[in-house]
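PROTEIN ENTRY
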Amino acid sequence: SVKTAEAAACDPCPPKSPWTFGGAFAFGLGQGNTDTFDLRVDGRIERERTPWGGRLTGTFVYGEKEAETVKNNWRVLGRIERQLGAKSYACGQVLYERDTLSSLVYRWTNTAGIGWTVVDTSRDTLDLEVGGGATIEKRNNREETIDPSGWLGADWRLLVSISRPAWLPTAGGKRPRRRSRQRTLSRVTCAS
């Protein structure tokens, strides 16, 4: 294949960002024999290990039934990771939980551990982790307690990609026209 000077001088593939963001919002309102209201808000920001990475997630759940609060809880997780070797990494996390309707005033779970990337392909990743730490908890009418905690876990991520088949009509109701193939002087493949 022949590359033109223009094609060789420019990089058509922008670098993949190590940052990802996500969120969800759910709202429900019911009326009839029982009046209900439900709200859930989730947020997530994550940075891939390069060599430092981390994650911040949060969840808020609130609900009412007949104008009485039946759900009101919070959960926030902060996590940091550091690549140690080709397949191993160290990690630490802090989890804060609060449930105003149960007796839980607050719970802090602080842990540190080590992880191994067992599978790492373009479609999926599997990490196994083990670690330990402490949980600090305060409940209504009780003393604050500090207990040891530990975890053994797995994090499996699968990339799912869905594309519209060529025979499916577009939003305007028309089938897309077939495009003729064109010859190019250079071929560039982007892997992400």
Confidence is low (pLDDT under 50) at residues 1-7, 178-192.
